[in-house]
User: Fold this.
Amino acid sequence: MNTDTEPDAGDGPEVKTTGTGTLESDRVSESAAGETEPTGEPDIAIQGRRPGNGLRLSALVLVILAAIAAITFGVMWLLASNDDNLTTDRVRDSALQAAETGAVNFTTLDYKNIQQGLDRWKQSATGDLYTQLTSGANTFEQQVQTAKVTTAGKVVDGALVSLEPHTGTAEAIVVVDVTVTPSTGSAATKRLPLDVSLTNTGSENSPVWKLNKLSQISTGGSESSTGTGTGQ
Assistant:
């Protein structure tokens, strides 16, 4: 009688052993497990890139901030430099304007209203020139009344010869056309080149320039001082 029994097909899959003693079913399970279980390597790679990206972003921000700071300080330096130049230009313009205004005032006088003309002279003068005007006002008035003339000055050209903002001194050459109109007869115009010395009676930042000397430059190169500037 044959005692061997045939395996029942309904009892499950056939199990085979390998030479190493490992069940074939175990190997299949291990292989399947290796295909389905995540190894964790992609997460490690992603986490490893994040610190690098943050460092690059921080470095980029620092570079941008440094560039902005450099531009800002550069602009500030240029503005400070230009501000000094602008200040010098303003002082120069104010000195020349005072020289030209003073030259017009001193070459303009009406014998019918002498006091008004003398007041303009005093407003434009300082120092020795102002002293001459105040001490010789009566003489000027008598001369103009006797001559009975009206003079009117007009600036033709002007330029600064020197400027010392720190010491408050300046010198200018102003060319004035003076029209002399007598009470009778026709008017005549004479061109006068004047050497004007100025003193700042204000501050360095807010200058108030006034004339301390006024001299007529003769065609021969010499100068003749004049208190009235009328050329008479």
The chain has a mean pLDDT of 76. Residues 103 and 174 are 7 Å apart (CA to CA). The first helix runs from residue 24 to 36.
